[in-house]
UniProtKB/TrEMBL annotation, chains A, B:
<comment type="similarity">
    <text>Belongs to the HMG-CoA lyase family.</text>
</comment>
<dbReference type="GO" id="GO:0046872">
    <property type="term" value="F:metal ion binding"/>
</dbReference>
<dbReference type="InterPro" id="IPR013785">
    <property type="entry name" value="Aldolase_TIM"/>
</dbReference>
<protein>
    <submittedName>
        <fullName>Hydroxymethylglutaryl-CoA lyase</fullName>
        <ecNumber>4.1.3.4</ecNumber>
    </submittedName>
</protein>
<keyword id="KW-0479">Metal-binding</keyword>
<dbReference type="InterPro" id="IPR002034">
    <property type="entry name" value="AIPM/Hcit_synth_CS"/>
</dbReference>
<feature type="domain" description="Pyruvate carboxyltransferase">
    <location>
        <begin position="8"/>
        <end position="277"/>
    </location>
</feature>
<dbReference type="GO" id="GO:0046912">
    <property type="term" value="F:acyltransferase activity, acyl groups converted into alkyl on transfer"/>
</dbReference>
<dbReference type="GO" id="GO:0046951">
    <property type="term" value="P:ketone body biosynthetic process"/>
</dbReference>
<comment type="similarity">
    <text>Belongs to the alpha-IPM synthase/homocitrate synthase family.</text>
</comment>
<dbReference type="Pfam" id="PF00682">
    <property type="entry name" value="HMGL-like"/>
</dbReference>
<keyword id="KW-0808">Transferase</keyword>
<dbReference type="InterPro" id="IPR000891">
    <property type="entry name" value="PYR_CT"/>
</dbReference>
<dbReference type="GO" id="GO:0004419">
    <property type="term" value="F:hydroxymethylglutaryl-CoA lyase activity"/>
</dbReference>
<dbReference type="GO" id="GO:0006552">
    <property type="term" value="P:L-leucine catabolic process"/>
</dbReference>
<keyword id="KW-0456">Lyase</keyword>
<dbReference type="InterPro" id="IPR043594">
    <property type="entry name" value="HMGL"/>
</dbReference>
Amino acid sequence: MTFYPAQATLREVGLRDGLQSIATVLPTERKLEWLRAAHAAGLREIEVGSLVPARLLPQLADTAALVAYARSLPGLCVCVLVPNLKGAERALETGADLMLVPLSASVEHSRANLRKTPEEVVAEVARMRAARDASGAKTLIEGGIGTAFGCTLQGHVAPEDVLRYMQALLDAGADRVSLADTVGYANPRAVRELFERARVIAGERLWCAHFHDTRGLALANSYAALETGVTRFDASLGGIGGCPHAPGASGNAATEDLAFMLADMGIDTGIDIDALLELRAQLAQWLSHETLHGTLWRAGLPKTFKAAQAVDSLS
Amino acid sequence: MTFYPAQATLREVGLRDGLQSIATVLPTERKLEWLRAAHAAGLREIEVGSLVPARLLPQLADTAALVAYARSLPGLCVCVLVPNLKGAERALETGADLMLVPLSASVEHSRANLRKTPEEVVAEVARMRAARDASGAKTLIEGGIGTAFGCTLQGHVAPEDVLRYMQALLDAGADRVSLADTVGYANPRAVRELFERARVIAGERLWCAHFHDTRGLALANSYAALETGVTRFDASLGGIGGCPHAPGASGNAATEDLAFMLADMGIDTGIDIDALLELRAQLAQWLSHETLHGTLWRAGLPKTFKAAQAVDSLS
């Protein structure tokens, strides 16, 4: 008998990972609406943007303003991506609850996307930790290991490398670590095997699983991770966030689909899925339907959905 | 550590479950091409149609001719759906290797779709078994329990009912039994729990898992079933076979996506996925793209795909 957790947390990453790969610049007012509605639908962790120079990602240039607004929403863990010490210093200034530092386990992907080797990212995390501790801020540092299952540039990524970087991130002072299938190379078996090994290294500091649906496996991979004890998942509304190397391919796990899967299994996410589907319809209008993915929105919730939750809460 | 099987079998059901729900009548010549190409791509079990009166399902009126052709393809297990004794007698005449008898665990669905109660289907299976034994034919009888996880008409379907019908089908002489999530009500937890209980009842006679992707969970559910020891899965090329109660919703698990998931996990299905993707593109032309689903076809196989298989065969 597999053990399933009573609760799980979804972290909405559409405002960062989703919008980052969409050329359309969503106006700040719309993003605030998104934040407000996502929070109202029950999401309690949201990655609101990326603290990088505006010339690199004009879509995310308003991140500091979003952090400020998000901090006003009760009970929300406000996450922000930071690529380097300078971004981390800005994150500390904004008062974000968590800063996510991406490390790419694929050396080629790391050079191409981060302009650093994985070892250089680890060294930067040590500097971030020193800056955080010196500042007295409570902002958590999460080391997010991307391309953990392979990558379009390098192909194979060895699990041993991933686990070595994980240990190095923890040694450098990361409070938490995560594993991400950045470009859709994971399968449930690989997920299970890597997360089981990662758990041995990081224990409760193994924080989050991040899957893309590039080849349809985001939910199967999420389930495989859940079985290893993961209870926190990244996802983006409408599955936005396609891979630049596979035009038209699906993006992140869709928040509404993953929320449905977990809730239907009797795992409490605190999310009102009807409200999330309404927000998805809204987002589809803002972004045009072509960039959205996911499946639940077509069929809607099953007839038994509420009943299943009620039955479960009694058993 | 979870045990994964070395091999798994996909049963292509697009020619029956897929075409059944599509108004377009695919000409017999196209179906023969599909059969030929599917066999060439490595599929070794195909449900070629349904032996029902042509006025009920004109799309499948050529089933007997397809059985005859399919029998000429080496090593192919030729499956055909039969709703009643009359269909079974025709199946015995055609020399099909396996006849699949649908039983709907939802009494309301059973009445609406089969015009019989589940108990009446069990009684019919006993008559089919007698007819098969009297004929001397080797055609296997598979009792396929549909709406095993819930249904749009009735809502909740109790696992106890499903398991009771499974035992009754075996007692009535079914050689094999299967569980089907006919309208997309399953989740991985429910799959795991029901298949584990079914295994206790049916042992090795628990034959096949049949999932629909109505709410995006076909692959996650397949993985959950795999973990309970299932090594045979129904799937349809391009995921055709939508639910009539959810217009536009996804259909069956897509053969190409499921084949990819299993192969990427190092599980041998004998399927050439590139060939399958070519056939899918062909089918998309025949049927128009709107009726096809699935995800792999957009992104294609990952760079590491062949390598992953080679690495796996060494480990």
